[in-house]
Amino acid sequence: MARLKRSELKRIKNLAESEKSNQEENSGQILNVKWTLRDVIFSVLFLIVILVGIYFGIAWILSILKISDKINSANITSLSFSVLYGIQVFLMVGVVWFFAIFWRRSKLRDLGFRYYSIIKTIWYSLLALVLILAINFSYVMLMTKVFNISPPESKIEELVNNKNISSIMLLVVVSLIAPICEEIYFRGFLFQGVKKSWGVFAGIFISSILFAAAHLDLYNFLPLLAIGWILAYIFHKTKSLIPVIFLHAIYNLLMILVLFSQFKSFNL
């Protein structure tokens, strides 16, 4: 009789936990991640192979045409920039759609497309923005004052100083399109795929490393790593892409506005 009672109690407990889990999932507190770590690895390898192939393919064509030294980020046109960045966006969002939506039949909500409090979004973003700016300032001071290493001109600085690219286009790409696409891939897809198999810490760490590496900026690798860590942590706590997209967009907007004011260049 006692054995029957224990068995019955265990069954009731399991049913209660299952019901609670379903309620949390339906209310958006838990995201149903159906894609796997293998999907994440395949997506990373695919993007590396394709993007590197495109880069060397274009370089090879330009060398044949003997104009490779005349085309770079300092003189690229708006059309060329939009095409190249459009390919990157298409591939990044495309692999998320294929593995998460098409292949694993996940919903957009599972990637983090769910409502989150606007007030909390703004508050968390302000706190995180202060932390990010403090990290960046401390890093630059450390590199310049202690190690005597000045920051080199970045690709985005070359693009801002480029008179052939529309400033409005740069603003839209840097402060809107880039944050949306990068957060969908790195936080919504990659972080969650790794977390599902290896846990939260591994998810934050690996997604942050890949996020920093994807920017191809060795000097700013550590600050980018810290930014990726903060974004992943906020996404983990909120289960929504809205706060991280907002934070990412505000940070990028501030940075590019500073560059515009520094170079005194804003062309339509």
Give the helix/strand layout.
Layout: H1 2-26, H2 37-64, H3 78-103, H4 118-146, H5 155-160, H6 167-198, H7 200-214, H8 221-238, H9 241-263
Provide a descriptive summary of the structure in words.
- This protein is mainly alpha-helical.
- The chain has one domain (34-263).
- It contains 9 helices and no strands.
- Helix 2 (37-64) packs antiparallel against helix 3 (78-103), helix 6 (167-198) packs antiparallel against helix 9 (241-263) and helix 7 packs across helix 8 (221-238).
- The mean pLDDT is 87.
Which features characterize this protein?
single chain, 268 residues, 75% helix, mainly alpha
Describe, in short, the structure shown.
The protein contains 9 helices and no strands. It is an all-alpha fold.
**SS content category:** mainly alpha
Mean pLDDT: 87
- Tertiary shape: globular
Counting structural domains, the number is: 1
Distance between the termini: 82 Å
Count all strands and give the number: 0
**Low-confidence sequence ranges:** none
User: What gyration radius follows from the Cα positions, in whole Å?
Assistant: 22 Å
Please report which band the strand proportion falls in: under 5%, 5-15%, 15-25%, 25-35%, 35-45% or over 45%.
Answer: under 5%
